[in-house]
Amino acid sequence: MRSLSARRSLGALALAAGALLASAVPASAHVTVQSNNAQQGGYTAVAFRVPNESDTASTVKVEVNLPLDHPMASVRTQPVPGWTAVMEKSKLDKPLDSHGQQITEAVSKITWTANDGTRIGPGQYQDFSVSLGALPTDTEQLTFKALQTYDNGDVVRWIEEAKDGQAEPSKPAPVLKLTKAAGATAAAADHHSTDATGTQQAAASDAKASDSTARTLGVVGIVVGVVGAALGAAGLRRRSARS
Fold first, then answer.
1. Cis ω before 134 (30° cut-off from 0)
2. I want to staple 33 with a disulfide (CB 3.0 to 4.6 A). Which of 43, 168, 174, 226 is the partner?
3. With a threshold of 0.90, does the pTM exceed it?
4. Mean pLDDT per 10-residue run, the chain (243 residues)?
5. Quick check: 181 and 42 in contact, CB under 8 A?
6. Which residue spans traverse the membrane (predicted)?
7. Which residues, in sequence order, are CB contacts of 208 under 8 Å at separation 6+?
8. Dist. CA 125–CA 51, nearest whole Å
9. Bridge partners of residue 106, in order along the sequence
């Protein structure tokens, strides 16, 4: 009986340990976009990092869709050994002004296809570098929906967008965060400085006005006091004369 009880206890401990280990396994890696300096209105080089999540299949194609609601006039790919990059363009609803020229179409998708003998194998990842610009000035981030195709035919769609107040989706789309341009930051600082200076000047002006008003009232008070004292003295004299 003791042996049976011990075996049951060990089995329960093994199940608990297995559950604990399963919960401790990190979440699968996602396709991401990275940049060292992505400023609004500027140009930058980004890297789309594609990890292979399968233990049995290899990645042989990667498609990245560029946002046409914030199109960019300049898009260039960096050669990746063993991969062929193809860019597709789409017509814009509203022409894009770039250095005085009207751009009527922009790159909407980039597809990297592995050549024979090339692939992203299990436990590996690959960076695909792209030069982009000019980055938009009216948004703080760009979303790039991506598709990852494996050699067994599976396609993983990294297209889900995160929403405020909700947990991260299971297949999130790569998002590039944009920072304010240095000039815009300086302009904002100057604007705040100007506002502060104006406030200080207004406060000083109000203080001067208040001081001037106080002095005027003080003088008026003195005059009224003198006149009152004079009238009082005259009244006393008249009473003394009558007596």
1. yes
2. 174
3. no
4. 52 44 49 95 97 97 96 96 98 86 93 98 98 95 98 97 86 96 54 47 50 50 50 53 51
5. yes
6. 217-236
7. none
8. 4
9. 90
